[in-house]
Amino acid sequence: MSSSSGNNSYLSAATVIGGAALGILSYLAFKYPDRAVFEDVQKGIPQVKGYPLIGTFFQQLKEVSRFYDAQHEHLEKLNTMTMINSSILISLTVTTIDPRNITHILKNNYTNYNKDTELKRCSKQFFGDGIFVHDGATWRFHRKTASRVFGTKDLQKCFDRVFAKNLGVITHDVLDQYATNGSVLDLQQLILKFTMDSFVQIGFGKDLKMLTQEGVVPLAESFDTSIDHIVDLYMNPFTPIMDKLHPLLHPHTKSISQHYKELDQFANEVISERRKDIQNGKKFNDLLSQFMDTKNENGEPFTDKDLRHVILGTISAGRETTSASIVWTMYSIMTNPDVEAKFLEEIDSYLPSDNYQQDLDPVKLYEAAKKMNYAHAVFYESMRLHPPIPVNQRVAVEDDIWPDGTEIRKGNVISWSNYAQGRSSKIWGSDCLEFKPERWILEDGTLYKEEKGQWPVFNIGPRACLGERMAIVEGLTTLITLIRRYKFSLYNPDQKVDYNVRVALSIKNGLKVLVSKRI
Ligand code: HEM
Predict the structure, then answer these.
(1) What molecular function terms (GO) are annotated for this protein (predicted)?
(2) Ligand 1 within 6 A of 457 CB?
(3) Please, which pLDDT band fits residue 2 given cuts at 50, 70 and 90?
(4) Residue 120 CB less than 6 A away from ligand 1
(5) Are 38 and 32 in contact (CB under 8 A)?
(6) Whole-angstrom Cα distance, residue 156 to residue 485?
(7) Which ligand 1 atom sits closest to the C-alpha of 394?
(8) I need a labelling partner for 192 at 20 to 30 A (CA). Which of 101, 217, 281, 374 fits?
(9) Is 474 exposed, middle or buried (0-12, 13-18, 19+ CB in 10 A)?
């Protein structure tokens, strides 16, 4: 008797608790029908529709590998230039492609938008306390130092000399061989080696000679894996667990800490070699020497750890972005024969030569590249559709109102998508998906100057890219040298070219091409 009455009272208690829980859940599901629980509606911002209580969690997981296109499609579907995405476990994000908002965030009210602390945490091991992750006084100090270093004539000469030398290597020692034996080349891998060799030489004064090595080079692999790991840490909450399981799941491959060790070892060796060389009276004019001569905010010389972060950060900023800009432009040229013909015509008119095999004098090449408007237009058009940094983001320090009326709350993650912006008909017109360099050339033949915030591929405002001029000149001289001397074609003309969702927009599985000499 007593046990059955006990059971009954447990049952009725369970029924009451279960009913209350169901009631609370139903109430919450009613209150948060399409977004993450406890995330309030932000008035006036179109929202990507999600599920009750969890928001867009599963959609976002599904869209991870095509993140940039998914953002573009949501904006188009909602017929808006600003939208909100709410999901459990993922920060609520307000995304915009409106040029007025982007100008506001990056220029007019930039002090209200800081780098994301979560991103800082995920990238600490790679970027340390350098320019890329800081705001406020620390960033200002780094920016001032870096601007001084980037502005020196010595450094500019060093960049030009290194790139000119490596253009010689890429043509004579690599592409001539591929053209002769007709084998398939992964152009992306080659250009990544080209930019790695060049930026390491500019940064550390060391020639890694990756360009002439076959296959994947271990240092480059450690570099790529470490950068990819930052994105994984940021986007995938299971990454720390996967890192712990790595020895069990992939016992024969390097763990992330081994990759970092490889980078540390490399940087430490270079720095200690350099200190010895300086003691022996040798003189240098590369990035490392410029930073070694600079004092930190406390008036002390940079420590080895600071130098390591500055140099690895700068190599990473220049290497992958410049490579992405060159490789996607080569792809666009290969798939648009009319553009290729016009490009060659312009090369002929500025650098006339009846022998395409002849090497170009680097000074002449730089001077001509600066004047070639069609070449600029091709390069810009490629970066419109394939921006090397496809998305970027900040966190709002205080409440704000954007020029389009969007109310931003303190702590909101805000993001702008160069990728979706470049593909928006609202901004670039109904032919926005076509590759048309002509849109960059005005009737009088001069280059179109886009409105501020309409093409922030290199960022705008006080945090604009310090390497923009360098990247454009190096990108153009590389393209001119390659297109003038060789005919490139896709190994598989039906290859569907897709991207990796990473810091920079690289081509998934590389770009396989065939090369032949022009004459
Ligand atoms: C096509 C090539 C390049 C593109 C598209 C590009 C794009 C960008 C973008 C979008 C930013 C802003 C990042 C942010 O604030 O979140 C940036 C910053 C920066 N870039 Fe570049 N970049 C390129 C090449 C280079 C090169 C070659 C260098 C130098 C070697 C360089 C050095 C820097 C530095 C130092 C910053 C930090 C500026 C600051 O925070 O004050 N970039 N770049």
Answers:
(1) heme binding; iron ion binding; monooxygenase activity; oxidoreductase activity, acting on paired donors, with incorporation or reduction of molecular oxygen
(2) yes
(3) low
(4) no
(5) yes
(6) 26
(7) 16
(8) 374
(9) buried
Whether residue 454 has its Cβ less than 6 Å from ligand 1: no
What is the 3-state secondary structure of 428-475?
HCCCCCCCCHHHHECCCCCECCCCCCCCCCCCCHHHCCCCHHHHHHHH
Q: What is the per-residue pLDDT for 53?
A: 82
465 annotated among ligand-binding-site residues: yes
Structure-block tokens of residue 328: 């996607």
Which neighbouring-strand residues pair with 179? none
Q: Which residues contact 509 (CB under 8 A, 6 or more apart)?
A: 498
The length of the chain, given as a count of residues: 519
CA–CA separation, 164 and 171 (whole Å)? 11
Give the position, in ligand 1's atom list, of the atom nearest the Cα of 146. Answer: 35
Neighbours of 38 (CB within 10 A): 10
Ligand 1 pocket test, pick from 316, 465, 474, 476 with the greatest ligand atom count within 8 Å of Cβ, gives 465
Complex ipTM: 0.98
Give the tens place of pLDDT for each residue, 244-303: 998 888 888 899 999 999 998 988 888 999 989 989 998 887 778 878 888 877 788 888
Supply the pLDDT for residue 214: 84
Q: What is the 3-state secondary structure (H, E, C) of 302-330?
A: CCHHHHHHHHHHHHHHHHHHHHHHHHHHH
The lowest-confidence range among 309-318, 375-384, 478-487 is: 309-318
> Residue whose CA is closest, atom 1 of ligand 1?
322
